[in-house]
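User: Predict the structure for this protein chain, please.
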Amino acid sequence: MPLLIHMSDLPIVGHLPKRAAVSLPERHLGLVPATELGAHATALYAIRTQVEATADLDAVLALARAAGPIAHAPAVLFPITAPAERVRVGLARDAAFGFYYEDNLDLLRAWGAELVEVSPLADPALPPDLDGLYLGGGFPELHGAALAANAGFRHSVAEAARAGLPVYAECGGLMYLAEWLVDLEGNRHAMALRRGDGAAGQPSRPCRRVDPRP
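Assistant: Here is the predicted structure, written as structure tokens:
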């Protein structure tokens, strides 16, 4: 750290040493999701303690407060008044699906969506009277057997799609709309749709492919 101070004209406000105690668990495609970090709370506490010990947080805040305003054109994302029309949108959220930006969900609510959380792992079927279905990202490949075993929910998604229900899916959610997926052990699991299902025809290729390890 003293060497960096002499080598740079930039203010050095701290450092984080490489220590096993302040590392976060990883898996393919990135870090373990925050929803699964309950068992790793000690690591989060260790990171906080390390930052407090080796970083000048007052200096960080002072730099932030001294920064000038950022010029930008205001974006009108949220409605000025709440829409009169309301819709019910199913939101897949469980251990297999949980990659959502809360800002996106806030926008949906602000524009009149009632988000109804559903679990492709545990629920027997989609709830009635939905106006749409949102299948977000996640790690369905880690829950392939359980997702396949819940045939009632899979079939209800296929039936709703055939009946014209708007379905938006991304990443892991799009994998769920495929005919099947192959998990990390090479096991093949049936998913929600079959060839010819869906109002818009066969789903597109998922955004990633999960191949078995060699």
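Residues 196-214 have pLDDT under 50 and may be disordered.
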